[in-house]
Amino acid sequence: MQWKRGNFSIFNERDLVDLNFVEAMLRSNYWAPTRPREVIAASIQGSIPLSLFDGEQQIGFARTVTDSATFAWIADVMVAPEYRGRGLGRWLIECILEHPAVVPTAQQVLRTRDAHELYTKFGFEIGECMSRMP
Questions:
Q1: φ, ψ for residue 91 (rounded to 5)?
Q2: Which member of 9, 19, 21, 51 has the greatest number of CB atoms within 10 A?
Q3: Going from the N-terminus, what domains does the chain have, and what CATH number goes with each?
Q4: CB within 8 A of 38, min separation 6: which ones?
Q5: 0.85 cut: is pTM over it?
Q6: 62-104: pLDDT as tens digits
């Protein structure tokens, strides 16, 4: 799948994920600073990845683990610091929530320590794990 907004694009193709970008972003975030590269690669293979690009440069990433029926776990939502504040993280979440593998799920969850404001706009309820039942 592909979404386009001006010069920005989001793709959900594993082959387009820049593993170097994802690894660097995870190392700079509180939830995965020591996650091994092999684990990062395996997590992408076992998920639906969404990669955000400015032209040909990857500037964001998110992934979802789902059974496409009852449950979807949204993880590793990241936008490069110089691109934050432009609504791109919100757009990543919009694209995840309209993905055909996520739409039919009865429960969508995620964890965050600092982005509650972003997720509550989409109906996620604040708790240890944020949850949304569409």
A1: -65, -40
A2: 51
A3: 2-104 (3.40.630.30)
A4: none
A5: yes
A6: 999 999 999 999 999 999 999 999 999 999 999 999 999 999 9
